[in-house]
Amino acid sequence: MNTAPFFTPVQVGLQEVETLLHAQAEDAHPDLCSALEHLLTSGGKRIRPAVCLLTGQMLAAPHDKLLTLAASVEMLHTATLVHDDLIDGALLRRGMPTLNAHWSPAATILTGDYMFARAAKLAAESDNLPLMKLFADTLATIVNGELSQLFAARGVISRENYSKRIYAKTASLFEMTTRAAAMISPADEAVVESMRQYGYALGMAFQIVDDILDFTGAQEMVGKPVGSDLLQGLVTLPAIYYAESHPYDPDVLCLTGGCYTEHERMERLLHRARAHGTIGTIHPGKRCDHEIHEGSASFYPKGAGIIEKRAGRSGAAGVGRPDRVHRKPEYLA
Ligand code: IPE
Ligand code: IPE
Ligand code: MG
Ligand code: MG
């Protein structure tokens, strides 16, 4: 898969977005400033700002507003990753150690908060109140989704539950991106709605591919821990396919009973789902699977020579480990 044509029409705009992103670190505490620099130079694919610019350019959105929107979307995305890696206990992202691999949870949370604030400020520069509302609603959807996943999604084998989860954590932001780019353009309501639907579909597909790579990808290629979903008890589409075709597998049967906390069982299930070939059925034909791999390899040029700093699959503070599944405090039960 050649990704170049996708980015080519927005290459100049993406450079300007980079400048805007780096400007957000100015005036911050020196440690915060270097953390932001580390995050911004760590090699994200910039798929969301690219989609934002492509949509806005197609609809003749004002250039300056489009740039700040694209920067806002990427800043919001990066902030969610900072918090997500802490929540998941992931020590590797984009082939580099995560912030939580080095820093305390407190410093990591505050860095994420700072980025959320800068993302909101960039969005506000659009001078568009409905867009600000959309930004706030999207952030609420993402946070609500993360919390639901933390408390109620482990061991659940359900396509409906899966769709809701991937909408909240990924597709909602893609949906916001294309919809907001249309909102700041001289486009009518029907076009805004079409763009919203496009972003939704793209985001859902993007997360499904990401979930497939969690089973089929190599850590050196995807730049983040693989196999982590199932090992944390999160049943994604590849595992759902396996469970549907092997309903009497003892490890499948016990999933809903809470055995997702048993590392050995989850390792076994992961191995079986990988080996069984059900993953290939999610996409039609092997060629497509190959293209996904090739495409992600070109997305992650840092692939080889990654610093392997993970202390096992669990996180720095043990967060995200299945044996430390997050539970509601008693006063909330
Ligand atoms: C990672 O998103 C989180 C998901 C929603 C799967 P990306 O794969 O776009 O992450 P970067 O920004 O390119 O690292
Ligand atoms: C990331 O979700 C999505 C958000 C940050 C909201 P995941 O935990 O599934 O993604 P990766 O695998 O860490 O990128
Ligand atoms: Mg994660
Ligand atoms: Mg997560």
In whole angstroms, how far apart are the ends?
Answer: 49 Å
Please report the first level of CATH classification, the CATH class.
Mainly Alpha
What's the mean pLDDT score? 84
Superfamily (CATH H level) name: Farnesyl Diphosphate Synthase
Enumerate the strands of the largest sheet in spatial order, edge to edge or round the barrel. 1-2
- Overall CATH architecture: Orthogonal Bundle
Number of strands: 2
Instruction: From the 3D structure, determine the CATH topology.
Output: Farnesyl Diphosphate Synthase
What would the principal axes of the Cα set say about the shape? Answer: globular
Bound molecules: 3-methylbut-3-enyl trihydrogen diphosphate, magnesium ion
Could you describe the 3D structure shown?
With 333 residues, this protein is mainly alpha-helical. The protein has one domain: Orthogonal Bundle (Farnesyl Diphosphate Synthase). It is 66% helix and 1% strand. It is built from 17 helices and two strands. Strands 1-2 form a two-stranded antiparallel ribbon. A hairpin with a 2-residue loop joins β1 and β2. α2 (11-23) crosses α5 (63-88), α4 (47-58) packs across α9 and α5 runs antiparallel to α7. It is globular and about 55 Å long. Residues 284-326 have low confidence and may be disordered. One 3-methylbut-3-enyl trihydrogen diphosphate binds at residues 44-45, 47, 94, 170, 207, 210.
